[in-house]
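Hi everyone,

Forwarding the result from last night's run.
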Amino acid sequence: MYGNGDRDTPAWEQPGRFTRTPAGGAGDAKPRGKDGFAPPGWPRGVRPPGVPDWEHTAVVWLYDLCPPGYRSHEVLRKYPVVLARMARQHVGAALAAARHGYGTARVDLKDAVPVHVLEAALRMYEYEGSRAAATERAVLLVEEALAGERWEPQL
């Protein structure tokens, strides 16, 4: 389906296929990395950095991670890298909450719910925590790309 031998995941999500190439500075004559490549963990639905309209897809995705009130702030519309920072902090807080909830659920819920409910709650914390960790990584990658970071595929 994706032309890379793995029918379930696109090439940009396969570990080990891409290397980070820092953005070139003002004194760096040679550009670093290539447009159109995204590293493992890049969010689905966000076009790879450097392709047409990629920043728009990144901004839409970032806003979807934030509370609705964030859409009313002009600074976030004008400066997507600030939006990415706010989204990273918001997702990081959700990850911290899942970790804390998992760590305290046994004590807090032991007398409130049956054991099978407690186990289901712990599985939910595990799932949501791992999802938040993956999202946090994806936000960091988008934030880096908005700041000029690019990646190159490894052969």
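The longest strand covers residues 18-21.

Cheers,
N.
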